[in-house]
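In practice, a research group might receive sequence data for several interacting partners and want a quick structural hypothesis before committing to experiments. The following worked case mirrors that situation: the sequences arrive first, and a predicted assembly follows.
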Amino acid sequence: MAGTIRVCDTCRFQSIAGAIAQANKGDTVLVYPGVYRESNIQVDKSLYVVGINYPRVDVQQQGYGFVLKGDSITLKGFEIYDVEQSYVKEYAAVLVRRCTTFVVEDLRIRRAFFGILAEKSSSGVIRDNRISGVYRTEADAGNGIHLWHCKHMRIEGNVVHHMRDGIYFEFVSRSVIEHNHSHDNVRYGLHFMFSNNDEYHDNIFERNGAGVAVMFSKYIHMRRNVFRDNWGVASYGLLLKEIYDATITDNHFIRNTIGINIDGSTRIRYERNLFQANGWAVRILGASYQNDFSENNFLHNTFDVAFSGRETTVRFVRNYWSDYTGYDLDRDGYGDVPYRPVKLFSYIVNQVPEAMVLLRSLFVGLINFSEKVSPVFTPDNLVDSKPAMRAYDIEVR
Amino acid sequence: MIQIRGLTKTFGKLRVLDDLHLDIAESRVTAILGPNGSGKTTLIKSILGMVVPDKGDVWIDGTSVRGQWAYRRNISYMSQIANFPANLRVREVVDMIREIRQQPAPNMDEIVRRLGVGRFWNKQMQHLSGGMRQKVNVLLTFMFDTPIYILDEPTTGLDPLALMHLKELIVQRKAQGRTILITSHIMGFVEEMAQHVAFLVEGRLYFDGSLEELKQRTGTDTLEQSIAEIIKRNYAAV
Amino acid sequence: MQLYKIVRYVIRDLLRSRWTYVYFAFYYLLGMVLLFINRDLSKAVITLMNIITILTPLIGTVFGVMYYYNSREFIQLLLAQPLRRDMLFSGQYIGVSLSLSLSLILGLGIPFSMYGVLYSGVIWDFAVLLVIGGFLTFIFVGLALVVALANDNRIKGFGYAIFLWLAFAVVYDGLFLLGLLYFRDYPLEKFALGGVLVNPIDLSRILILLKLDIAALMGFTGAVFKKVFGTSVGMIMAFGALLLWVWIPWQLMLWYARRKDF
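A structural hypothesis for the assembly, expressed as tokens:
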């Protein structure tokens, strides 16, 4: 029979570490409200460590908060703050090292360096945590939820803000990220590196320094996420770099400087996404092949598509473009005249960025129109041959 | 007392007033006469400040009018062509001028009655005949009691009855000691109204004196003849 | 006081004029048609921007010139009254501009508020649009009055005024773009911003862009652009420049009026 060990001011155990040391495998350690000035609390056996009403763990800038190691560990319901900052070690409120089937749940992590850091672990759940850092610079901030060499992980319902990257994946496979809210992080809201066969859906990423980046990864599926209000010189709703075989469906890209920036990515399907009020809805750089856009809505973006680099195959079909002015005489729901999403002015702005001040002027309208009537500069093959006459209904949560 | 000193005005190449000096005495009717294009209207508009002279100045009671506006309170002006904003009704024009001038209009009702302006009181200006408009012009000029009256071709378009009323008004004002300035091509009218004549030729003062003096000098019986005589002489000289 | 009276007469006069209603009806129908075609407030607001930055200056220009030539009697009548010339002409200027602005605001405001703009997210975009339309009306009525005062010949006056509009609306931007392309190897930030300040139509456009296209504008590396577009500096600067643009033609008009013979 598993026992229960209580930790409080008047209990037998006044320290969490002390209680854990005495606990047997399978026991529950119940921690009552109070301030526990403890750091580097080692949980190295299968336990349920549960805080009641968020007892406070003050790490006092001394290394880690909790360190989890082993199988079947649950950590739940604490408030953890003042994790040590370091330029050499990645101190985290919770370090998960070589664990399987663990649950890290309902933590409130403040003034974190790293929030939850998982290494070489699998089959874990990181759920409903709130993680925030002190907004400083990229160099001295850590990541909110940082996974390295993990698989079969589930990151769910967390709120992460004012960290370096909200959620960071490196060598993580077959994992799911869902229903998280990652905002106001210094660098990326979500960052994938060398991670394959993952999916993320129903997340909200907003006001992050550079949006969301998916790099050097394969078979990533992105669904029903919201990417919005990422403004700045190198700011994207979504940055794709060296990505293969991904699907991007039913997402909202709203008010980003660049909705999706595509760099050297191949075999990507973009379906039923909404691009609204972005500076550039889609920017395609060189060496990207078989990028297929269909049934997306492009609404009121400053530029729908910008395009540089020749070695590229992009296909647009059946998208809705709010700038489309054609007609549908055969009433099949698609315009009879192809739509050219690349405007001449977008080329000019590419050459001379300052020319942007002439955006939406009558003169620019005239040259765009003349280019539309007889294209000289814009590529012939970059057209939507079946532009939809009506916008699609694209819902996210 | 209106003093005109060295007044010069050119429109393009045309010199309309050429170093004109003239005193217009108070409490009498002075007629400004001259052939077409001799500068009569320009002189009047200079006094009113509607034309900005190139050189010289107009002094009223010892004060220069240049850049001034309040002195126009003392002047009632009847323009040569009775043009009014087409959309406005007679009543509105009268109300507007009264509101702008903020002066009592003691003679208004009487003049309205005598000229029969009441019949088209609520009509828009664009629907009035030339004569009707001229009646409105007379009303706007004489409804105020001001020290100076300037009438530019006041008889144009008036029917005999209205003309009679106009003459009565002028006589009445003269009797009250007002300074009145008239230009007209109807010499009978001038002879009847004016005691004093200033005669302009090509922007210069050719003659300034009483009617009698003018007749004496030209050796003619009527004003009309003397004017004709002057014009003839002048153009013969040219 | 004098100014107020004259403004009132001018507006009363214009309320009788067919053209005020034509202008109002034009905007009303335009608003209705836009909403009917688009069924989408955001899109209608964008289309409206093009119309406002191009059409209000044109209408202001034509109406200003026309009004001046048609109101010469009114001016003559009032010049003989104890009124300051400055007040008379300022009054006309304000009266014409104000009634045109009202036609614009009511003409567009009614259909758009019927479509629920008041309760939608674009209410501020729409409001900024109308305010800018008002500014442009004032600016171009002022310029039109300057041209009209300087030209007694109606046909010439109309011609010059239309040319002035064309210059601001199209020609200037064309030359400006050529300049930018030609000097692309030099730092152009300040030149680009300065060039925009010089033209009231461009200035208004930038103000609207700050609302509609801020995401794209934030994609610049330049520090000056960043400051101008990223903070309230741009808004304040642009509105300041617009005010200056109202003031300059106004003063120019008074300068001409003081020297003119009637």
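Before designing any experiment, note the following. Chain B has one domain: 2-237. Helices of chain B lie at 40-48, 90-101, 108-115, 130-142, 160-175, 187-193, 211-218, 223-237.
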